[in-house]
Design brief:
There is one protein chain. The protein is α+β, with helices and mostly antiparallel strands. It is 21% helix and 36% strand. The protein has four helices and nine strands, in the order βαββαββαβαβββ. A five-stranded antiparallel beta sheet has the order 2-6-5-4-7. Strands 3-1-8-9 form a four-stranded antiparallel beta sheet, covered by helices on one side. Helix 2 packs antiparallel against helix 3. It is globular, with a radius of gyration of 17 Å. The protein starts with 9 loop residues before the first strand and ends with a strand. The relative contact order is 0.26.
Length: 202
């Protein structure tokens, strides 16, 4: 992966990574069904994630302080459970911009983490988005099919009802860390981990 020029701003965001087994499950679902779904861009296996907050362009010398602040946030939380939900879309129903896998946020812990993170990042001048937080895992972008997209036809292809069952595993996992990602727009995979923020059991 090509590294950015020293002192050049980094394009950063904070996110939850998926466990390797679940990344593999989503990737297998993509391989099995991509020929049925005409999207221009499919997420690389290593890029599956749940965004917590997008920060944008950040000077490299600010990264250590941001990471330290995030570690302070992590100390307020213990590992918690997340799960897969049904597939959904953003955009026009017949020609969506994004195809995603939903996230089950048991006890709204991820929402509370996102609120705490965004509040902490205000110290660095990062403003929380005005739209409601909707945790999800992007699978593909920009529908380009000849026929109108039909979300209902995808329901039998949900990862938790096909691939995960074949892998003899559930669709729930323990989230015990979040990461600070740097984006490399023209690379695949596109995201580089700058720091991993671990939540410790008490």
């Amino acid at each position: 992966m090509e590294k950015p020029i020293k002192d050049q701003p980094l394009r950063l965001f904070i996110a939850v990574r998926l466990p390797d087994q679940l990344k593999s499950a989503l990737e297998q679902w993509r391989k099995d069904n991509q020929h049925l779904l005409s999207f221009k861009r499919w997420t690389h296996r290593e890029d599956y994630h749940i965004t917590i907050q997008f920060l944008g362009d950040v000077e490299p010398d600010r990264v250590p302080a941001i990471a330290n602040k995030l570690q302070s946030v992590a100390s307020q939380f213990q590992p918690f459970e997340l799960g897969f939900d049904k597939v959904g879309i953003f955009g026009v129903k017949t020609s969506p911009q994004v195809l995603w896998a939903g996230v089950i946020d048991y006890n709204d812990t991820l929402v509370r983490l996102q609120e705490t993170v965004t509040k902490a990042m205000e110290e660095f001048g990062f403003v929380k988005e005005s739209r409601p937080y909707h945790p999800h895992i992007t699978i593909a972008r920009k529908y380009a099919g000849d026929q109108p997209f039909q979300l209902d036809s995808l329901q039998p292809l949900l990862p938790q009802t096909t691939v995960l069952r074949h892998a003899q595993m559930g669709a729930t996992w323990t989230m015990n860390e979040f990461v600070l990602f740097s984006t490399h727009l023209h690379d695949r995979p596109m995201y580089e981990i700058l720091d991993s923020i671990v939540m410790e059991d008490s």
